[in-house]
């Protein structure tokens, strides 16, 4: 994993803005990507400054000021119910010390709490005689508290205080109730707009992410991209991604954004014993409201040190299999809405596809590398066999001549000792040549019944990503299923693969590759015919003349041995290879294998 910034930096990472999620849960629209273009939102019919009211915070201050102006109150506050914490947050105050703002009230606590839970206004002529009243400012004598309500749901409370006894009249209460209703409407409107803006941003982020993922090639790069986008999209402090290890028993942290060192160095988690393990096993999202206090969360100390509070984890699923988890953590208490869960799950689905795509690409590159390797080895084998063959004949002649020479020549002791050594060395050379030839002979075909159609399916499967990447369309051109052919599976597979890879090499700008199979009759014999056709660069007549000679290549990294091997394999099978080609038009290779 690459370094993801210092823990210090992580601590100052963006805080989740308190905006759309503040709207009470039942009013939230479900997040569906295709539905992000909203139905027009109509602002409440009021002559007030629209620009001012697009921002709920400014609307709140504005309404509080109007309330104080209308009633002649000494001071006041605008309070909202926070659906995340269930607490009453003081959003705006007038005529009160600033520290009051930090006060957190519980629902049902004090006059405000009562108004918030019952949705009823409360007018108190003398606060000293009201049991529910909690003294905040000692000089206050009377109070008016009205609920801010929208369609039967209490969003908050406007509190007005006076230093005079019985300051607020019935008329004041009526006026404030009307004002509160208007404020509620503006709040809903503002929240909805903020939510829509957020959705718009989210959709853009998703689209952007999709784009950037397509351009990533390495797995590490893809994973870092996913978590960076995840944190931005979800507006959370931390986003991390864990993948299942090869034995599927452990989840290993592969990328993290916004996390400190301790988190980044967390050990692998056992799937059977951890919370996120359950996400993988059940393939369902999991929410922990507070990881610092939830007994199901194992690493409380780490969470405290890192300042992680609420967690949402969703599974990464590819082809119905969970391959890992995507987690986000906030740095303050937060209730994840259905919309947020869906959003992260959408991101996770996208990510799983991206991860699998990157893994496949890596595998294709590996396959190509091993193909090239095996082609080189075959080339070496072929070369060794040629050399062995070339040496064996002269060596046999030398041995014969040497024998007659030694037996017809009188020699002293020293010379006959030399002769003995020469003879021994020649025998040694002969043995080496024998061994090489027997090794090559073991490449003699081991024939077994093979379904050529299936074999071609397997080859297509192996190269489909390479073809796709290069814009090559693959076509199968096969008649009725063929009877099994008696061939050496590995050798024929290698021959076809060689032809396919050559065809791919001949179509750098894309094209069509056709692989066909059929039965043919020629000179009273029946043959299996395998055709590999491309519409690539083609070959000149001159090129075709030397095509099967080893080491002839037009490619920068070619070996020029592929077709020589194919020819040798066909020879081993008493078969034939045919070629037709036109420059710029394409090439057709045909392998013919006797069916008898
Ligand atoms: P290599 O692929 O390593 O070059 P091969 O023996 O497989 O070696 O191919 C030899 C040469 O034959 C290639 O370099 C290429 O010039 C030519 N060739 C083979 N197949 C095709 C084809 N389908 N279209 C055009 N040229 C081909
Ligand atoms: Mg080749």
What would your notes on this structure say?
The chain has 596 residues and is of the alpha+beta class. The chain has four domains: 149 residues, GAF domain (Beta-Lactamase, 2-Layer Sandwich), CATH 3.30.450.40; 149 residues, GAF domain (Beta-Lactamase, 2-Layer Sandwich), CATH 3.30.450; 78 residues, Helix Hairpins (Orthogonal Bundle); 147 residues, Heat Shock Protein 90. The protein contains 15 helices and 19 strands. A hairpin with a 5-residue loop joins strand 1 and strand 2. Helix 6 runs antiparallel to helix 10. The protein is elongated and about 145 Å long. Adenosine-5'-diphosphate binds next to helix 13 and helix 15.
Strand tally = 19
Please give the CATH architecture of the largest domain. 2-Layer Sandwich
What gap, in angstroms, lies between the N and C termini? 58 Å
CATH superfamily of the largest domain: GAF domain
CATH fold field value of the largest domain: Beta-Lactamase
| Assembly classification | single chain
Question: What percentage of amino acids are in beta strands?
Answer: 15-25%
Q: Quick one: overall form?
A: elongated
Radius of gyration computed on alpha carbons: 40 Å
Structural class: alpha+beta
Give the distinct bound molecules.
adenosine-5'-diphosphate, magnesium ion
CATH class of the largest domain: Alpha Beta
Helix share of residues? 40-55%
Keywords:
single chain; 596 residues; alpha+beta; Beta-Lactamase; Helix Hairpins; 6-stranded antiparallel sheet; 15 helices; elongated; disordered N terminus; binds adenosine-5'-diphosphate; binds magnesium ion
